[in-house]
Design a protein that fits this description.
Its EC number is 2.1.1.182. Its main location: cytoplasm. Keywords: Cytoplasm, Methyltransferase, RNA-binding, rRNA processing, S-adenosyl-L-methionine, Transferase. 38% of the residues lie in helices and 17% in strands. It contains twelve helices and nine strands. The strands form two sheets. It has a seven-stranded mixed β-sheet with strand order 4-3-2-5-6-9-7, with helices on both faces. A two-stranded antiparallel ribbon has the order 1-8. The chain is elongated. With 295 residues, the chain is an alpha/beta fold. The longest helix is centred in the N-terminal third of the chain and has 14 residues, at 84-97. The protein has helices spanning 12-22, 38-47, 65-73, 84-97, 135-145, 158-165, 175-183, 223-235, 241-244, 246-249, 252-262, 275-283; strands at 34-35, 55-59, 76-81, 105-109, 125-129, 151-157, 184-192, 197-198, 205-212.
């Protein structure tokens, strides 16, 4: 394996120079804040526990700061980029700065929400700096679409990190917390300062680690069925589950019957339930004509 040059990673001047050459102005619309600190991207790779036989998928590589750090360690890296200009430029950046690893890199020019297959071997890890406005749907989509992903580390807005890693009973526990926990054990894995980005965001960032469950949740309900209960419970989170799930079950009485059968108090609220309890409720929904639930 060819070792990359010590200065292969992008520093502040490199990032600005690349952006100027490409005519790129970071946009709020796509949540673009480029990492300009080599120590930070190497820290992310270490925290993600990327090792030499990993096949890593990265969403939103931007100018390539994290991509290059991943290529230093992983066997292969596939980057998914939606931006036309950034997608066109990234392969040349990789070839120029890390020529010995360029054959280990692949680019998918697409919206990550629409990606259902990737070139090369199945990914074993997902590492990404996700824009806050699409972080949760992109994360959940990738975990669903690629069950081979064992470990995930995402950098997201600090508040999003808190929500993803929140335990039952927490004020910020909600839909993202439960759905992420369907797939993985989730925890906060550190904080990232604002000064490592260009432009510096006006929010703090955090790292979230997700280690996929070695065995899927034991339930006869499908993911779609469980997620429908979760969505209904938190759509009216201040209400008791008996009331909040009335629409989902067909009536408040039917909701109460499902809750009692699942061993959950009808007076409880969604924020107190584990993903396992939501699954039990889904299992006890009475069969009746209904509109298709959206997950």
């Amino acid at each position: 394996m060819t070792s990359p040059a010590p200065d292969a990673l992008l520093g502040p001047a490199d990032v600005r120079e690349l952006a100027t050459a490409l005519g790129v102005r970071p946009t709020k619309q796509r949540g673009q804040n480029f990492v300009i600190d080599a120590n930070t991207v190497r820290r992310i790779v270490r925290t993600a526990q990327v090792h030499p036989d990993d096949v890593v998928v990265e969403v939103g590589p931007g100018l390539g700061s994290l991509t290059l750090a991943l290529l230093e360690v992983a066997d292969r890296v596939t980057a998914v980029e939606i931006d036309d200009v950034l997608a066109a430029a990234l392969p040349a950046t990789i070839t120029a700065r890390m020529p010995g690893r360029a054959d280990r890199f692949a680019l998918v020019h697409s919206d990550a929400m629409h990606v259902t297959e990737l070139p090369g071997p199945a990914p074993t890890a997902l590492v990404a700096n996700l824009p806050y406005n699409v972080a949760v749907p992109v994360l959940l989509h990738m975990l669903e679409a690629f069950p081979s992903i064992e470990r995930t580390l995402v950098m997201v807005q600090s508040e999003v990190a808190d929500r993803l890693a929140a335990p039952p009973g927490s004020k910020v526990y909600g839909v993202p917390s439960v759905k992420a926990n369907w797939y993985a054990e989730v925890k906060r894995a550190g904080a990232i300062g604002r000064n490592v980005f260009w432009p510096a965001p006006n929010v703090d960032s955090g790292l979230v680690s997700l280690v996929r469950r070695t065995e899927p949740l034991k339930t006869t309900a499908s993911r779609r069925e469980v997620f429908a209960v979760v969505d209904a419970a938190f759509a009216q989170r201040r209400k008791t589950l008996r009331a909040a799930l009335a629409g989902w079950a067909g009536s408040a009485a039917a909701a109460e019957a499902a809750l009692v059968a699942a061993g959950v108090s009808p007076q409880a609220r969604g924020e107190s339930l584990t993903v396992e309890e939501f699954a039990r409720i889904a299992e006890h929904k009475q069969n009746q004509p209904q509109e298709e639930e959206s997950a």
